[in-house]
Design a protein that fits this description.
The structure holds two protein chains of two kinds. By secondary structure, chain A is an alpha+beta fold. Chain A has helices at about 20-30, 55-70, 100-110, 130-140, and strands at about 5-15, 35-40, 45-55, 75-80, 85-95, 115-120, 120-130, 145-150, 155-160. In chain A, the strands form two sheets. In chain A, strands 5, 6, 7, 8 and 9 form a five-stranded antiparallel beta sheet that branches. A four-stranded antiparallel beta sheet of chain A has the order 2-3-1-4, covered by helices on one side. Chain B is of the alpha/beta class. Chain B has three domains: about 1-170, Rossmann fold; about 190-355, 3-Layer(aba) Sandwich (Rossmann fold), CATH 3.40.50; about 370-540, Rossmann fold (3-Layer(aba) Sandwich). Chain B has 23 helices and 20 strands. In chain B, the strands form four sheets. Chain B has a six-stranded parallel beta sheet with strand order 3-2-4-5-7-6, sandwiched between helices. The longest helix of chain B is centred in the middle third of the chain and has 18 residues, at about 340-355. The N and C termini of chain B lie far apart (about 70 Å). The chains are: A alpha+beta, B alpha/beta. Chains A and B meet through α1 and α2 of A and loops of B. The complex binds thiamine diphosphate and magnesium ion. Magnesium ion (MG) binds near residues 473, 474 and 493 of chain B.
């Protein structure tokens, strides 16, 4: 069966060890985590974990049930087949020799990134967007020379039904 | 009035109705032990912490209460892990309390510090490290609630030494309501009507029940359902006793060492109504060819059990007892007059399977282990609580002792822990002082927790240990015989202690039978004794457990005697 990327949005009661319970569940049962983002929600004591996992349909069903079985997990929302907005932030340190600076700034403009740090031979760019957008940007910067990339992993939120 | 952590723990345990603890003290639990001495809670001092957990597990099963263990930090805590993992696999409600080094030393590699919460995270239902004295009472309350609700399981509470001595006001705790944990007890009625529809239409139905039926106390509902709808019943190892083993509809256990008729029935069935089972690989064999002609109904309180190993036609999430009870209500509205006629051919087929290919062995010059179990069954009229070790002994116990009631067969089903049977017998005997409790053991397994003989003798627990001594790690040897060209690598156990003298050394009674004629006299004498007794039977060394489904084969492809 086809393995597909699935975006899970998990609400947890922010007890000590809750993250290691979730990560341990994945390693112990041989599931895979592509990316993971954790932070508090607007409600104190409750955190949201956005997780991207690659698995086939039955395995994703098991993953959701197993997550739900953890005592501190309040809600598991599978956004994969719903309408949702998704963002990721990346910091990209790129070679910036004088002859490339103008081109880099043009790309910055097109992708609506910002330059957050400048050095004698580098720019550090900050960009937010979907995975596709980040991939496209990296594709363009690659020939110029990417020194380092740091990404946050995906966060996602379902759209309000109209 | 302010109370210490240890005092609060005792109060909280009393509020949960705890009257018995299995445990072993040490530095990090000494304050709790000190307080324990001033309560009326009975403490059973085991000889190894693993024994404490198995005993608590079995106490829970035999007595229907949460089993409680108390141990110290470090090695005391790590010694509980096997027992916890076994209780977790078998969904048994126990609470394990571990002492921990003082909070300010946690993370410093302090003496006897171990991250037991980290170690047991994957093998508990839930666990806690109490960091604040104010949380202690609440944590105990939650632990007992989680252990025994939904799909039950072990919960561990790690209590640092400074929390045991810290003081605070104690308030009686309100009932637990966790926003992130709400097990589903009530099944969906629409799903249940579908089940009844399938039952009425089915020509060859089979009920497959497991430990979940016993845990939900749903045996009566199960039995009523099967008898009224005239459906033959098979039970997993964990489910033995959920349906009477002497009922004409009884098929025996399915799976790797299941009866011929149970496995064939599953193979030919057009409808399997599974309740409280998890379709373990030892039951299903090759999953692709399991019950190939059947629609499967699966009732379970744990949604993650459903569709995990087999795809089912009708999932029912809910409590087994409730679900089966509601199915019986739905049957009330049906005309069941035609049912016997409709089932006749199917039940007849099953009768034929039973006649042509029953469980069998041939008792000749040496004692057959099956003969010992069969004789034990007859002499005890099937009324004993049987615990088992693991291996061939366990399978013969399951095959040749027949259980008419739940909670009378206590075995480490999911994890298969050698060394389970003796401490389990102790736990069951503590829970049921007036019952005859017998551990059916192998010569290898019994040596794994033999030290608990001292516990049994100390507390005058008249448990009976029946050792089927084949001088081998017999189950492994059987695999080597069948699948490894009889290369008996490291399975010869003929270098064993003299079990009769060993029993006597512990202050128990030791008896031995070497000849078939001695089986009845030894059992009769041993069972009649008011003391702890080891009865050793020198049995046919290379006897095998049959039928056997080779690993990875379909369950209808059985090796027969
Ligand atoms: C703690 C543990 N270690 C190893 C095993 C693997 N194992 C399963 S059955 C068995 C042999 C048991 O021998 P014995 O107790 O003599 O029973 P028999 O099969 O001979 O009746 C072994 C080694 C196990 N189940 N548990
Ligand atoms: Mg043996």
């Amino acid at each position: 069966m086809n393995e597909e990327k699935n975006v899970l949005s998990i609400l947890v009661d922010n007890q000590p060890g809750v993250l290691s319970r979730i990560v341990g569940l994945f390693s112990g049962r041989g599931y895979n985590i592509e990316s993971l983002c954790v932070a508090e929600t607007a409600e104190a004591g409750i955190s949201r974990i956005t997780m991207v996992t690659k698995a086939n349909k039955p395995v994703v069903e098991q993953i959701k049930k197993q997550l739900h079985k953890l005592i501190n997990v309040m809600k598991v929302n599978d956004l994969t087949d719903t309408k949702y907005v998704q963002r990721e932030l990346a910091l990209i340190k790129v070679n910036a020799k004088p002859e490339h600076r103008a081109e880099i700034l043009r790309i910055v403009d097109i992708f609506r990134c910002s330059v957050v740090d400048v050095g004698p031979d580098h720019y550090t760019l900050e960009v937010t967007g979907t995975e596709d957008k980040l991939a496209a940007l990296c594709g363009l910067l690659k020939p110029i020379g990417i020194k380092e990339v740091v990404r946050t992993g995906n966060i996602a939120m379902c759209r309000e039904v109209q | 009035m302010e109370l210490t952590g240890a005092q609060i723990l005792m109060k909280a345990l009393k509020e949960e109705g705890v009257d018995t603890i299995f445990g072993y003290p040490g530095g990090a639990a000494i304050d709790i032990y000190d307080e324990l001495s001033r309560t009326d809670i009975r403490h059973i001092l085991v000889r190894h912490e693993q024994g404490a957990v198995h005993a608590a597990d079995s106490y829970a099963r035999a007595g229907g209460k949460v089993g409680v263990c108390l141990v110290t930090s470090g090695p005391g805590a790590t010694n509980t892990v096997t027992g916890i993992a076994s209780a977790n696999m078998d969904s048994i409600p126990i609470v394990v309390i571990t002492g921990q080094v003082p909070s300010h030393l946690i993370g410093n590699d302090a003496f006897q510090e171990v991250d037991i919460v980290g170690i047991t995270r994957p093998c508990t239902k839930h666990n806690y490290l109490v960091k604040n004295i104010e949380d202690l009472a609440r944590t105990v309350k939650e632990a007992f609630y989680i252990a025994q609700t939904g799909r039950p399981g072990p919960v561990l509470i790690d209590i640092p030494k400074n929390i045991q001595t810290a003081k605070t006001l104690y308030n009686r705790q309100k009932p637990v309501a966790l926003k992130s944990y709400r097990p589903t007890y009530d099944p969906n009625m629409k799903q249940l009507s579908k089940v009844i529809g399938l039952v009425m239409a089915s020509e060859r139905p089979v009920v497959f029940a497991g430990g979940g039926v016993i845990l939900s106390k749903g045996s009566a509902e199960l039995t009523e359902f099967a008898q009224r709808a005239q459906i033959p019943v098979t039970c997993s190892l964990m489910g033995l006793g959920a349906f009477p083993g002497t009922d004409p509809l009884w098929l025996g256990m399915p799976g790797m060492h299941g009866t011929y008729r149970a496995n064939m029935s599953i193979g030919e069935s057009d409808l399997i109504i599974a309740a409280g089972v998890r379709f373990d690989d030892r039951v299903t064999g090759k999953i692709e060819t399991f019950a190939p002609k059947a629609k499967i109904v699966h009732i379970d309180i744990d949604p993650s059990s459903i569709h995990k190993n087999v795809q089912v036609a009708v999932p029912v999430v809910g409590d087994c007892k409730k679900s089966l009870g509601l199915l019986n209500h739905l049957l009330d509205k049906k005309n069941l007059k035609d049912i016997p006629g409709k089932r006749a051919a199917w039940l007849d087929q099953i009768r034929q399977w039973k006649e042509t290919t029953p469980l069998a062995y041939h008792q000749k010059d040496t004692i057959k282990p099956q003969h010992v179990v069969k004789t034990l069954y007859e002499l005890t009229k099937g009324e004993a609580i049987i615990t088992t070790e693991v291996g061939q002994n366990q399978m013969w116990a399951a095959q040749y002792y027949h259980f008419d009631r739940p909670n009378h067969f206590i075995t480490s089903g999911g994890l298969g822990v050698m060394g389970f049977g003796l401490p389990a017998a102790i736990g069951a005997q503590v829970a049921c002082p007036d019952k005859l409790v017998i551990d059916i053991a192998g010569d290898g397994s019994i040596q794994m927790n033999i030290q608990e003989m001292a516990t049994a003798v100390q507390y005058n627990l008249p448990v009976k240990i029946v050792i089927l001594n084949n001088g081998y790690l017999g189950m492994v040897r059987q695999w080597q015989e069948l699948f490894y060209d009889k290369c008996y690598s490291c399975t010869d156990m003929s270098h064993a202690p003299d079990f009769v003298k060993l029993a006597e050394a512990f202050g128990a009674v030791g008896l031995r039978a070497t000849h078939p004629d001695e089986v009845i006299p030894v059992l009769t004498e041993g069972l009649a004794s008011p003391q702890t007794v080891i009865m050793e039977f020198i049995v046919e060394r290379e006897e095998g457990v049959y039928p056997m489904v080779p690993a990875g084969a379909s369950i209808t492809e059985m090796l027969l005697v």
